[in-house]
Amino acid sequence: MENSNYTRRTPNESLCLEFIMNNKDLSRAELSTMTGLTKATISVIVKKLLEDHLVLETGIGVSSNAGGRKPINLQYNGKAGLSISIDVGYNYINALLSYLDGEEISILQKKPIALNEETIKKHFSEIIESFNESLPQTYYGVIGIVVAVHGPVYDGNIIFTPHYNLDRIPFRKITEELSDYPVYLENEANLSALGEYTFTSESSSLISINMHSGIGAGIVQNGLLQVGSHGFAGEIGHQIVMINGKKCLCGNHGCLEMYAANKVCFEKFAQAKSMDYVNAIILREYYQNHDPDAIQVVQENIRYLSVGINNLIAHYDPEVIVLNSSLYREIPEMIQQLKQILQNRFSNKVIVRNTLLNEKSTLLGGLVLNLQHFLDVKQIKLTD
After folding, report:
1. 344 CA to centre of own chain
2. Which positions ≥6 away from 340 have C-beta within 8 Å?
3. In three state form, how does the secondary structure of 299-337 look?
4. Taking burial as the number of CB atoms within 10 A of a residue's CB, which of 186, 265, 276, 370 is the most buried?
5. In this structure, are 71 and 92 located in the same domain?
6. Cα(203)–Cα(14) distance, integer angstroms
7. What is the pLDDT of residues 284-340, one digit of tens each?
8. Distance (Å, whole) CA 22 – CA 204
């Protein structure tokens, strides 16, 4: 479904909009230089973007050394519309209503919950109804809804969801029945990478590793997701790190996520302590009190994850690797220990760090995907 306010843009319009979005306070002359388009062409395009409410004139710039009239600066209008993102995890749903510049209007979390087709319909209905009640007035309204799932997605369809039986649930159909907005489906790690790439990094290549019940990686190069020929690119949780190891739901034995996923760490520690429930906060408390079982679980996780990251670096040579894991956020010194292991000729120039967006990275990545579809712009940088 296409947004009723959508206006298809020419390649030159998309090019100019991309430069304006990625460079604050550009003049028309600077835009002409950057794009290689004539000043007359730029004048026509900017007039159209102003009429479409996607660009604003923000004030007077600095004149050149030759003097003359001072230029008027241009700026992306991030308040022209709204975006909805919904992240469906193995026991939770997070949702974000935001402006097109990422400013949060409303955020909802439902956790812990049991997920099936009936409960998803119920929760999605409540989320969309709640957001619709608090929509501010904008020119375009809601430009789309992005639904994130924890499993590989290709061409808008779920391939499988290894840690929850949701691959047969018609997310798109459910969402379209609840709203008139365009609906897109994507893997949560891919969206997390888009969010980090757009809002936290100046780099041209970034990988975001998301660790929950499983482990997935989103790979972005020059603004575009790298999904592979069948949608499996970035499924690093299914690298084999132990020959003839534990059987994985994907059909292999010895997959990385059978040893290093957050869920595995929590279950292992719970078993060691005869506890019914463990999360990152509980494990952190024991670790900081030098509990030997906690130390062992943490060190094993670091060792196994370092293998997966080393393989990623060798395959993709990224500038930045971001970890999106409650465990690494609660115990940030794990990052430093991980870096100490990753000291080789391939990895010594790669930045490895914790997420700067926490649990919002996937939701903000949903906004980016909405923008890419709506604006027909692929390379988006909205860093401060």
Report:
1. 28
2. none
3. HHHHHHHHHHHHHHHHHHCCCEEEEEEHHHHHCCHHHHH
4. 370
5. no
6. 21
7. 999 999 999 999 999 999 999 999 999 999 999 999 999 999 999 999 999 999 999
8. 13
User: Half-sphere exposure (CA, 13 Å, Cβ side) for 382?
Assistant: 23
Angstrom distance (rounded) from CA 240 to CA 259: 10
Nearest by Cα to 231 from 183, 184, 186, 164: 186
Residue that terminates a domain, selected from 42, 60, 76: 76
- What is the side-by-side order of every strand in the sheet holding 142-149? 104-110, 93-99, 82-88, 142-149, 183-187
Q: Which two tokens stand for residue 149?
A: 């799932």
Residue 315 lies in a domain: yes
Task: Tell me how far apart the alpha carbons of residues 63 and 379 are, in angstroms, rounded to a whole number.
Answer: 29
CATH number at residue 56: 1.10.10.10
Residue closest to 336 by CA, chosen among 317, 319, 323? 323
For residues 187 and 208, state if they share a domain: no
**Closest by CA position to 1, among listed 381, 382, 374, 384:** 374
Give the DSSP per-residue string, 149-216. Answer: ESS-EETTEE---TTSS-TTS-HHHHHHHH-SS-EEEEEHHHHHHHHHHHHH---SEEEEEEESSSEE
pTM summary value: 0.90
Pairing of strands 82-88, 142-149: parallel
Give 123-138 pLDDT, tens digit per residue.
999 999 999 999 999 9
Q: How far apart are CA 312 and CA 197, in angstroms?
A: 17
Tokens representing residue 240 in the block? 């084999």
The whole-angstrom separation of Cα 317 and Cα 32 is 33
Q: Which amino acid does the sequence have at 92? A: Y
The tokens of 310 are what? 């080393």
DSSP state of 137: P
Q: Are 138 and 79 in contact (CB under 8 A)?
A: yes
Query: Which residues of 237-293 form beta strands (DSSP E)?
Result: none
